[in-house]
Amino acid sequence: MWSLIQLFYIIIVNAYITSLLYRSHAYVDGPSQLILTGGSMATVYVVLAHLAKSTTIQEHNEGESCVPTGQILVTQLSLSSLGIATILMVFMGGTGSGLLVTFILGVAQAVQWSSFYCLTTSGFAMASATSQLTAFAVGVPYLQQGPFGADTSSFIIVASLVMYFLTLPRMNSMPLWSRIILMIVPLLPRSMTVAIPQTWARKSHPIELLHLEGRRQYNDMVSRQSKTVEEAITEYHRRYFRAPPTGFDSWAQLALDNDMLLIDEFDDMTKAFEPYQQVGPNVLAKILERVLDMDLDDLVIVKIENSQITSSSDKFWNYHGEYLHDWLAKPLYKELLPNLTIILNTFDEPKVVIDSKYAQPTLDQASNIQFTNFGKTHPWSRMTLNCPGASPVSEVAEYIAVEFVADLTQTQDVCQHREYEKLHGFFNTPGNLNLVDLPVPLFSQARPSTFHDLMYPSPYYEAHRDDYNEEKGFPWDQKRTSLYWRGSTTGGYNTIENWQEMHRQRLVLSTIPQNGPYNITLLEQKTSRSSWNPYRTISTPKLQGLFETSVSEVVQCDEEACDELKAALPPEGSQSDSASYHHKYVLDMDGNGFSGRYYRILRSRSAVIKQTLLKEWHDDWLVPWYHFIPLSMQGSEVWEMMRFFSTDEGDEIGAAIAESSSRWTETNLRKVDVELVTLRLILEYGALFDRKQ
């Protein structure tokens, strides 16, 4: 029995070594992959070989049990491997994501190899190489993706066989060469799937790799969330280098009690408060006083006093205040609320771009605050006044590569993309825009990277929470493989000079089937193992058939522009919300501000292709390529995107993204989640006026 326990221990330890070695370099690509893999394996082999030579393996007969012989040796080797692998993981910056899954796979592989060995010898030559072979078996899908995968694979196979030979016990009943053959025969099926496929293996499409990375990021994010109030407070200190606001401990307990999945993920929402932390509470109070006196129609004022919440009652947009009241109305929430005055921007467009010279305004400056109307003008310089002067315009070459959005934060950084001036209606010629250049701490539903509005959950989404009707939806395999979008020409004010630069019009003009064929760029492989390279071609009727894009109504334009728009993009009228549910892929684009249909189509079990320059509160919780498919502002990659999604591999990923987004709305978009997000934001807001913290 003790011998069996020791054998089980050896399997477990080697499986753990597997997970450490594999996770330390599984996601590393390029030449460093070979260095990390080879270096870690070689170090283990050197020590194992040294120990093997210094330990005597007694001769034994074939009929002996496979358990007792060599136990001391294998135990020593396993412990040494464990120590080395742990040190390697620490210095190589390994991640703990998926460790349990890898460990379980390692156990299964270790049992398989150990069983093979017991059939061919009564020693433990197998155990010393089990961890290395298992690590490789588990890591094959990832090793194949790197350019040095074949070299790494060959190294591991050869080194593992060498390790077999070094620790193989001497046998009396059978020649050594025959024992080696018997030992290699069980490995041949694995070798066919491990070594040879490195020549035949299909090179993954960029979208496949982006989806894998998105899934890893989200799983990592979920696994690292705080499990106690104390952990949440510690994590807040670590992220923001300051103490959390008054009431945070009670908020954290409420979040835990209500099973909030992402209790720590508030980075964008929290960092939005940083400019206002540079302004004294008395100056902020003066700014609020001045804004209240202005009595602007597009602002709703909410006041909290002695836990009682009141809002403007005579304005058309007052439902914003009513939803805020509803979100904070629970007794457990109200007892945490400080006395505050809150300003809600009810318009789609944000309002605050702080001029650096007013970053810390005086009381006199705060008393003279003004909002300036930039509607139907070209306010690019005003919107980007805080960008470095040397910000380059990203050049788009005549022969362009197909580039998918890999870093959404960088893609949405307006300062890094001066070309957005001509690619997005809001930056080109907004239909409505009232800007203020002092730090007015008002809440807006969405904002670009150069704006300083505070973010909060949009009441519009909440008002339309039940718009998705499950009975009108379809399972994935009953949807059409096509991209759907129909909407009006909002997004900016259209003139004869600029309407073709507006983001909605540009995308429809470049995909509407009746306007084809189009000059497009796709990706191709010469062989299944070669890289994906771009090539220019003409869109085919089959490819054009993957798009169903059209304009429902022509609006926000002067007379001449309206006429041209109607001629180029004949309006086809509105359709019911459920029209999009027939399609596997649904495009969602900015309008004048954020898109109000986003949550509905995330729920619809279609995969959302999202094109936006606006940040919203939920960006902290949604992961690109796992919950949605990001599209650049140029949008030219949409052709290759849809070509890939029409393949079997692409369809599988599209279905996974659609399922992930639907599940996200169920687990992260509950009413209680929106309430708790709002409560935490109000606590952060209250801290601006309570600097004693």
TrEMBL record:
KW Glycoprotein (keyword) present: no
InterPro entries xref list: CAP10, O-Glucosyltr/Glycosyltrsf_90
Keywords: Membrane, Transferase, Transmembrane, Transmembrane helix
Residue ranges annotated for the Glycosyl transferase CAP10 domain, each copy included: 402-692
Molecular function GO labels: transferase activity
Signal peptide (residue range): none
Residues passing through the membrane, by range: 6-22, 34-52, 82-105, 117-142, 148-168, 180-200
Domain of life: Eukaryota
Keyword match Transmembrane helix: yes
PANTHER family: KDEL LYS-ASP-GLU-LEU CONTAINING - RELATED, PROTEIN O-GLUCOSYLTRANSFERASE 1
Family: Belongs to the glycosyltransferase 90 family.
Protein's recorded name: Glycosyl transferase CAP10 domain-containing protein
Organism: Aureobasidium pullulans (Black yeast)
